[in-house]
Design a protein that fits this description.
There is one protein chain. This protein is α+β, with helices and mostly antiparallel strands. It has 2 domains: 194 residues, 2-Layer Sandwich (Nucleotidyltransferase, domain 5); 82 residues, 2-Layer Sandwich (Gyrase A, domain 2). 35% of the residues lie in helices and 27% in strands. It contains 8 helices and 17 strands. Helix 5 packs antiparallel against helix 7 and helix 6 runs antiparallel to helix 7. The longest helix is centred in the middle third of the chain and has 45 residues. The termini are far apart. The relative contact order is 0.08.
Length: 353
């Protein structure tokens, strides 16, 4: 573990072993040791005891933030607050500092290439003394943690002021005692709210296998859906081709093999003297070939016009066929579509201009 004491100049650091013994210490760029516990300047964070009802963590943080206005004169939006876990008496620690200060400390740590596991107010490094007060000098200030008749206190102040605030003289600790307590889980971590550490998501054991199976299942369903749509489209195209061939058979001499319905009917129309029905049916067959999803349900003709009933999935298909017939020099009039068995049926009348 590494304790990193933040300061306007180069930070001091202590390297601790698992037992809380100081194995190395220095100033400036710290060694590559994890986890790193950052300690902000002692006088930049104020600590208070508050009582909150039994709330969810997010609600407790919001309530504590509102209570911070009782202790700080600065606008609430300029403050950063953090809370500790409730004790047996229901009280917990509330830390208040500046949001800009927090951002600056984290920026300085980032410049050092350090990602702190926690940021602990300096007085929280001291072990609690249930029967009195303990203190440890850090620079020009005295860190104090005390159990007073009106409740626990933790603060940093100049030595004369700190002693004046205490009813009894504090017991002075050495660095080794502070280090031994520092390896324990902190009573309060400033990395909360918008400054909380962002943990990368990691799948629980076995979940990656389940996710892989789910992805494979989804892919299979997508492929199956595409195959089903292709099969349906092929069936629709086959039905349309059968319809065209059936219509062509009525226009060609009996027994004529159907090889290319449009070409055969067009040739028949060109050679026919009367050619009324054929001249109307050939462009209709050509239009149907461009819309494989359209089938011909019925067809009737007289000397001057042809009436057909089209089955489509969309009114747009009828519009496309009508446009093709108009482009062929014919007059095409479509009626209103009507629903039948999941499809749309539309009556179409084709005549010469």
């Amino acid at each position: 573990m590494l304790l990193l004491f933040l300061a306007p100049a180069d930070p001091d650091w202590w390297q601790l072993d698992d037992a809380g013994r100081i194995v190395a210490r220095g100033t400036g760029t710290p060694p590559a040791v994890t986890p790193v516990i950052a300690i902000p300047p002692a006088d930049a964070v104020s600590l208070h005891r508050i009582t909150l009802p039994n709330l969810a963590p997010a609600q407790a943080q919001a309530a504590a933030r509102m209570m911070a206005t009782e202790f700080a004169a600065a606008p609430l939006e300029s403050l950063h607050t953090a809370i500790g876990s409730p004790g047996p008496d229901g009280q917990r620690w509330l830390a208040i500092t500046g949001a800009d200060a927090m951002a600056g400390w984290l920026a300085s740590l980032d410049a050092l290439g350090v990602s702190p596991a926690a940021m602990v107010p300096a007085p929280m490094l001291l072990p609690p003394d249930p029967q009195g007060a303990v203190a440890w000098p850090l620079g020009p200030l005295l860190l104090v943690r005390a159990a007073l008749p009106d409740g626990p206190r933790a603060f940093a102040a100049e030595p004369d002021l700190a002693e004046a605030l205490l009813p009894v003289a504090p017991r002075l600790l050495d660095a080794e005692a502070v280090a031994a307590h520092a390896v324990r889980p902190p009573a309060l971590d400033l990395l909360q709210g918008r400054f909380a550490r962002r943990q990368p998501w990691k799948a629980p054991p076995g979940q990656m296998k389940r996710l892989a199976l789910l992805a494979a299942t989804v892919a299979l369903l997508l492929v199956a859906g595409d195959a089903a749509r292709l099969w349906q489209a092929a069936r629709a195209a086959d039905a349309a081709a059968e319809t065209r061939d059936a219509l062509a058979a009525t226009l060609l001499p009996p027994g004529t093999p159907i090889t290319s319905a449009r070409a055969q009917v067009a040739a028949r129309a060109a050679s026919a003297a009367s050619g009324g029905f054929s001249r109307l049916a050939a462009p209709l067959l050509a239009a149907l070939e461009t819309c494989p999803g359209v089938s011909l349900a019925a067809v009737e003709a007289d000397a001057t016009s042809l009436s057909a009933t089209l089955e489509t999935a969309s009114p747009g298909d009828v519009a496309a066929i009508t446009a093709a017939l108009e482009a062929a020099g014919l007059t095409a009039t479509a009626g209103l579509p009507r629903g039948t068995a999941g499809t749309l049926q539309t009556d179409l009348k084709v005549s010469r201009r």
